[in-house]
Amino acid sequence: MCSSPADRTAPAVPVPLSEPAPLAEDADSRPAPTLARSAGLVSLATMTSRILGLAREQVLLIMFGAGDKMDAFNVAFRLPNLVRDLFAEGAMSAAFVPTFTRELRQRGKEAAWELGSLVISGLVLVTGLLALVAILFAQPLTQWIAGEYGAVPGKLELTTTLTRVMFPFLTLVAVAVACMGMLNALRWFFVPALAPAMFNIAAILSAFAIAPFMPRIGLDPMMGLALGTLLGGVGQIALQWPALRKEGFRFRFRFAPADPRLREVLWLMAPGTLGLAAVQINQLVNVWLATGEGTGAVTFLQTAFRLMYLPIGLFGVSIATASLPTIARHAADDKPDDVRDTVSQALRLMLMLNVPATFGLIVLAVPIVELLVQYGRVTAGNTAGIATALICYAPGLVGYSVVKLASPTFYALKDSRTPVTVSLVSIAVNVGLNLALVRTMSYRGLALGTGIAALVNAGTLLWLLRRRLHGLDDRRVLTALAKILAASCVMAAAAWSTEHYFAIAWPSPAWYARLIRVGCAVGAGLLTLAASARLLRLHEFERASSRVLARLGRR
Fold this sequence. Notes:
Layout: H1 5-9, H2 35-64, H3 68-89, H4 91-107, H5 109-136, H6 138-145, H7 155-166, H8 169-185, H9 190-194, H10 196-209, H11 222-247, H12 260-275, H13 278-290, H14 297-332, H15 336-363, H16 365-373, H17 380-393, H18 397-412, H19 417-441, H20 443-468, H21 474-505, H22 511-535, H23 539-554
Helix pairs in contact: 2-10, 2-14, 3-7, 3-8, 3-13, 3-14, 4-5, 4-8, 4-12, 4-14, 4-18, 5-8, 6-7, 7-11, 8-11, 10-11, 12-19, 13-19, 13-20, 14-15, 14-17, 14-18, 15-18, 15-21, 16-17, 16-22, 17-20, 18-20, 19-20, 21-22
């Protein structure tokens, strides 16, 4: 695992998961947690949430299939989920964390809590108004996005009803992410990263406990999933609130639009939403175009994107989340060299984890999808559709992860224009590619176009950030990337060969046979990756391995 000089000399003291790391105002008297250790906490919680998210997709597909009703639910949830993704992993953190951190360091907790109440109050009012407008205009909204559904009796009407029910999720998730931002600034990483897991738990429970009872009161079973979505939003807040109260936060509703601190957050959030919106808006474009590609197309893309987003959550969001408070502190203290070192370290760590994950998803897409979702109402044809979409999405995995790091860095440097411009360019590239590719590749072209657009977005941001910071330790990054690519190619060949051998020798469709085939393929790939990294002297991999082994030894 790559580390800064400070990381190499810091004592390897484990941080208990039940307690926060040292507070911001204590940073001078107690050692702050290293980037790798903070990212580890976030990664552990995010892994739990992503695995539950994957379990949610499995449960919904197995119980309801990849048909018209599942398409209707996915389209209805796309708009509130668009804003959820922006808030949870984007504009809110980029705008709020630096401002809250500066308030905490310069004026203390009371002033920071006052800012937190201001922001939550403003978010409740703004998102509540947006939700109300969306509820009132749900019919023309869904008609615009999924007009093709009108050809299937009842499909468009169900989509409209579900949209109305789920839009209040906006307000719930906005409050949840404000809590997440405050806790991250206080160096609580595990609890806020775990909060999204509550949404997935609520969705899974609603599929079993609420959906089956909906027909008894004359409603579609999908209405139970919509209600579960709202319960999941409440759960995200409920999980984080005790930690905030422990730190001393007491919410007081106060809306003061003239407050300069609130204006600063909103001023950063407005362009920040555009600057970090490329992935979500591109997904919305995909849904719009996929509604005309036949039954199941929207669900194929949704499921494939969820599978690809698992490593993004583990290796992209977690690293970016742990890096942002450090980057914000260095930027506030006017230390560009430290900002550059932190970004370079996080970038190399992202490449080390995401490039092999990309190769693995490509060569093992079919057996992974078979293992995870081909049960119940999911057919082999559904599996093939999801797997091909996953292969086309996979090249953008590195791009998605890098954007999570690069875009918030610009906001910490008080530059909102650059990520906004780059995001708009990325959206234009995505729309152009999708319109061209959907004609020849159907929904697969939508996934490929989105993946390419993500790489364009990330590459452009890094190039501009490199100019802003006068380099990103370029030689070290490029050397590491070359070694990572070589090791990943060897790893992919070993994983594919192993799975192919077992598929021929043991072609059983049983779940345990699938698990053994995929497990052996992944194991062979990891062993090959470790051997290749050692031969190539890939220090980032060696450091990551030594940290993992040391932690296991302590436990």
